Amino acid sequence: MSGTPSRAGHDPTHPVEGSSDADTLVLAAPSAIGGHCPCSREAHDGTAAATGTSGFLRVAFTRGGLSPPEEWVRAAGDGADVRVVDSTPCSVGGDESGEREGEKGVVTVTASGPANLTDVGVRVTDALDDMDVTAGDTGGGSGGPVCCLGSLTALLQYVDAREAYRFVNAVTARVASLGGSTHAHIEPAAHDRRTIDTMASLFDIVAEPSSAGDGLDVVRSRRR
User: Fold this and answer.
1) Which of 13, 18, 107, 135 has the fewest CB atoms within 10 Å, i.e. is most exposed?
2) pTM for this structure?
3) A Pfam family name for this chain (predicted)?
């Protein structure tokens, strides 16, 4: 049985603002073109510093999630700090890990697979710390990083909801401490109502793709 969070008290047609600092749970899989990433507009034309964003981080639990939104890649080409933590299954052999720079300046850090969230958390923390230092050294945006946690649906195939909850809570808290925002993706058809509500409780906004196909609409919000 699938489930979606309650919409009580909110207009489901209200759009999600691209520059919002709210943490957002998106009821859809990550999109390669960034259409389902609420903060991707900040990198649309490579003006990350102008919008106050210090950098962009994606945590990938699926192979498809390894490619950040096209807007982020364009921003990296213009000097923005864009990183990916590769925590896909079999991303590394044994306990090995490493860092590599991909096309147009996107840095990818390999971590253990999604079943080892302790190691993934360490890589995420290290990446955020490095981005914070880089922003300070280069005079980049001071508004904090934008973090995309990729597919929670994929993550929940390897860990239970309690462990996933603790991981997401730790990441959102760390990003918030740097003045940034986090969004994650979950596919409601793959989970029961309790799982969706548990994950949704960690976010300011729950959103879904607009029926018009041009952005995201708010399903539920704790913000005014």
Assistant:
1) 13
2) 0.80
3) DUF7504
Give domain status of residue 97, yes or no: yes
Structure tokens, 114: 């999604």
- Within a domain: residue 156? yes
CA distance 215 to 224: 20
Structural domain containing residue 103: 24-221
| Residue-by-residue pLDDT tens, the chain, 224 positions | 456 565 544 444 455 554 457 899 999 887 655 556 665 544 333 334 434 567 889 999 988 878 777 777 777 767 778 899 999 987 555 444 556 655 567 889 999 889 999 999 999 999 999 888 876 555 555 568 889 998 999 999 999 999 999 999 999 999 999 999 999 999 999 999 999 999 999 999 999 888 776 678 888 998 64
In a domain, 2, yes or no: no
Count of domains forming the chain: 1
How far apart CA 152 and CA 30 sit, in angstroms, is 10
